[in-house]
Amino acid sequence: MIRRAFLVFLILTIGYALFVEFVKVDRDTSQHQASGNRIKAEQFVFGTDDPDATVIVGSSLSFRIILDSLPAGTSNLGFGGLSIYDGLELIRRSGKHPARVLIETNMLFKEPDHSFLDAVFAPGLYALRREIPILQEENQPTGVLVGWLKEQLRTVPDASATGTDSMAMSQTLFDTNMASFAVVPPDSVQDRYLDLLATEVAALEAQHIEVIFMEVPVSPEITASPLAMRSRAMIEARFPDHRFLRTDPNITWRTADGLHLEPHNAQRFSSWLAKALR
Amino acid sequence: MPFKSAVVATLAAGLPMLFNSVPFFLLLVPTLLLYYVPFMQRFQLHVIIAASFIFYAYNMPWLLLLLIVSLGINTLASHAVVFGRADRRKMYATVGVTLNLVVLILFKYSPLIGRSFFEGSGIGEFLIAIPLPVGISFFTFQGISLVVDAYRGKDVPDYASIVVKGMWEHTLRISTFIAFFAQLVAGPVVKAHEFLPQVRTKYFKDIAWNSAFASLVVGYFLKMVVADNLKDQTFWITFPYFKDMHSITLLVLLFGYSMQIFADFAGYSLIAIGLARLFGYILMDNFDFPYIAATFSEFWRRWHISLSSFLREYLYIPLGGNRMGGFHTYKNLMITMVLGGLWHGAAWSYAVWGFFHGLVLALERLTKDLGWSMKGKVPRFLHMLFIFTSVTFAWLLFKLPEFDHVIVYVRMLLQNTDIPNIQPIIIFFTALFSVPVVAYHLLYLWTREPRPIVARIKPIVYGGMLFLILVNSGGGASFIYFQF
């Protein structure tokens, strides 16, 4: 029984490898937020090292930036549920040297998730995934199936978004977000995160990578919240010589929950960002 | 960082190796080779113990101290019970059981006691800061089983093999029994009289390859393909995210969580059973298709069997079981299930979960005592559906340890019938990854009659599962039952 099972396994594996190599079409194959994060991370680390590339590093706020509007070769390392420090560490551990890195400044005080990067760079598995495409997250059969289904149905929303994406404005989540932005962490905590950011920025700049800070627009209430104001002030004080991209404060942006831009507004912001980067 | 905080942080962060991690395979393969090499046959127990210590201490060497203390307590207590002074046997057994309970209460329930009774005080802060070492609920229960079996003497099957005279040999045997990495951190809860009689020299030629292979493949498939993929969907059963979801989505998510918790724990148990088989040991089956149960008592004969049988043997029966009948039986059921609930976690929601199961078991018993059996009047399928639905709703207390959030979830389930967010992708994936668990149970029902086709398609099914383990595993996650 064992021998026959391994034979079936081999046939399926070789067949699927051929399918992925010769038949599979590039589609969005993300199955949920974590899968979307993983696909982006793997595409970045296994992709070519483009010295003219721009890389966006951020949280779920940057996740929604639409790359079609931005210059070719731009990568979005905005990860839902994760922090800017995960994206920065991903660049460092991948050994890539892009031309510039845009760092989102809205969520400075969020802990990095080491388990995410440990999974991407798992010893042994990392090398296997790099060489064998069927082991990569974007080629999971269920993701490929749903990617095909999404394309057939067209109306189905993006599964990798943070859950609120397809919803009407959620008052519950807005209240939760407002509550979290009303609290400013103690100075010692702020300093710890800023020190970490300064270390990462210095490491990038030592490799002649340009660093630009960027604030993703959110609802007016959160823009004016104590935590948002404090984050802005701290970045400006700590990195006075860096470019800081911020939209006109008089423009109102529609969000799903106070924080995450609705699809149409995400498109608007992406276009604005493309112009600002020119 | 002060010393105490450093220790607490270290302990809280650490987990043993995961069965589905590369380091585990790097440990397993040489251990297995060393174990069966002819010139190492005399040292088989040493090999298992060394590998188990590395497994447990991998991310956190501090944990090993606690395990060694537990091994010391149980080795000495069980030896003293059998070979100590006859008039002190009861005292040694009592001390052994009490020390196990003290270790369990100190490390597992201190935060609950601190939060419930000493909130805001210095004692409260100290109690809350005590970390939960992984696997403590399992290895302390095995320790209790050892001491009690040693004390029960001749009533216990294979009594002579439970405690041997030579202290060094006894230490090795007990360390293997309690620390064996296959079952150390999440069971099955192995009883002394089931495991220790199996301790003898093992030979490579005796490995039951087919059953080990079947257990490992199904176990890894349930864990890595089913549970780990469902986990990313059932994440949405998190307050307050679920509040804006449609009733259908909430219902599907709850169903998915029921499938996930089964796949996670049954998967882990099957891996443990398969690994133990590779080393020549037979661990008891821990799950017997629990979602086909038609009564609550049947459910508990099929779910986490090693724990249910432990609670029956070492708690329910010593409390009096059903010997005195009527009220006493119901009371004993309630006590057993509430304590069984608390065993799962140091939060009152687990006690409520246990209370629910105790109550329904007592009610079931009452209806039986009164002769109100519905058997034969209602089709078995409807009984099964009712039990499955009840059990599934009770799992909410596992997923949402805040009782208020459970109430909100149920309220949203009833209220959100006309909001627009049905979330088809979440429903699709939850249903898709639940299919294997449903099929697993249906296949069991279907194959209760001999079906020759089953033997023919088995290799295809196992080959398919191996393929999906390779290409469709979910994001790595620790096992749900590690927290218990």
Percentage of residues assigned to helices of chain B = 55-70%
SSE ordering of chain A: HHEHEHEHHHHHEHHEH
From N to C, what is the helix and strand string of chain B?
HHHHHHHHHHHHHHHHHHH
- Architecture of chain A in CATH? 3-Layer(aba) Sandwich
The residue-averaged pLDDT of chain B reads: 87
Largest sheet of chain A: 5 strands, parallel
Which overall shape of chain B is indicated by the principal axes computed on the Cα atoms? globular
Strand content of chain A: 5-15%
Number of distinct beta strands of chain A: 5
Number-wise, the strands of chain B total: 0
What kind of assembly state do the chains in view correspond to? heterodimer
Determine and state the CATH class of chain A: Alpha Beta
Query: What does the main sheet of chain B amount to?
Result: none
CATH fold category name of chain A: Rossmann fold
Computed Rg of chain B: 23 Å
Distance between the termini of chain B: 28 Å
Q: Are there runs of chain A of 5+ residues with pLDDT below 50, and where?
A: 156-167
Brief write-up:
The complex is a heterodimer of chains A (278) and B (484). Chain A is α/β, with parallel strands linked by helices and 278 residues long.
Describe, in plain words, how this protein is organized in 3D.
The complex is a heterodimer of chains A (278) and B (484). A 5-stranded parallel β-sheet of chain A has the order 2-1-3-4-5. Chain A has one domain (28-277): Rossmann fold, CATH 3.40.50. Chain A contains 12 helices and 5 strands. In chain A, helix 3 (60-63) links the parallel strand 1 and strand 2 (74-78). Chain A is α/β, with parallel strands linked by helices. Chain B is mainly α and 484 residues long. Chain B has 2 domains: 2-206, no CATH class; 209-483, no CATH class. Chain B has helices at 3-13, 22-36, 44-57, 62-83, 89-117, 122-129, 136-152, 167-179, 192-195, 209-234, 247-278, 296-302, 305-319, 326-344, 348-369, 380-399, 403-415, 424-446, 452-471. In chain B, helix 14 (326-344) runs antiparallel to helix 15. The two termini of chain B are 28 Å apart. In chain B, 45% of the residues are buried. Mean pLDDT of chain B is 87; it is low at 1-13. The interface between A and B is large, with 44 and 38 residues.
